[in-house]
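Progress narrative, Year 2. Work on DUF3450 family protein from Oleiharenicola lentus advanced from sequence curation to structure prediction during this period.
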Amino acid sequence: MRTPLLPRAACGFLLLGWALPLVSSRAADPIEEVGKTASEWVKTRAETVRLEKDWEQDRVLLESTLTALKERGERLKEKRDHLLAATADERTEQASLNTKLTEARQTLVSTEQRLLALADKVQALRPKLPPRLAEALEMSYRSLAGKELSPGERMQLVMTVLNRCAQFNMDITHGEEVLTLPGEPAAKSVEVIYWGLSHGYALDRAGAKAWLGAPGPDGWRWELLAGAAPAVAELLAVRRDEADPRLIPVPAKLDAAR
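Result:
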């Protein structure tokens, strides 16, 4: 059985009508994409133009600032060079003073070390001094033992001790002292006479005893002199102008180790 021609034609037109809108719809998509792209490009271009314009303005400002900074730098450099030239003598003098100050500090350290060594020797001298002199220097020695002394204070104390020793050594000193003597049960008051720092004599008139004193390895020491009391008594009488000056033989001891 054959199909009628008209319905077939109608069906074909229907299919064609359905396909045309589909083709038209698909053909419109690229156009929209092109439009969007063009719109984005316009925006980007506008932003680029704005940035270029802003950069031109900023560039002018930055160039002006850079020029000003360069000029200021040049002025500061010139000022620095001028100050360096103007203060050249002062800086040379300052360097010289710094060198002298360093040398002075080193000298001071060396001087302090020598002074400490001298102070130790002066301290070690004390036990060998005549008892009368050692007692007179008690305060000076006590101060000299201080650890917080300045170099000037320490030097002054050392010179005080040495000057007193030199003065004592140039004189003959006599008087009364309380001494602890060998062979005696307790300290007692006796008459003494010192020949400088070298030696001295002690006299106990009541006991008719005499002692010879001199510095030894461990300090000043007294030694009993048998039968020497009359000679020492006569020596003291001459010293006190109670007898005419004359030669008086008295015992003495020379110690090469002193």
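Helices lie at 5-86, 88-125, 131-136, 138-144, 151-169, 229-239. Strands lie at 172-179, 188-195, 199-204, 209-216, 219-225.
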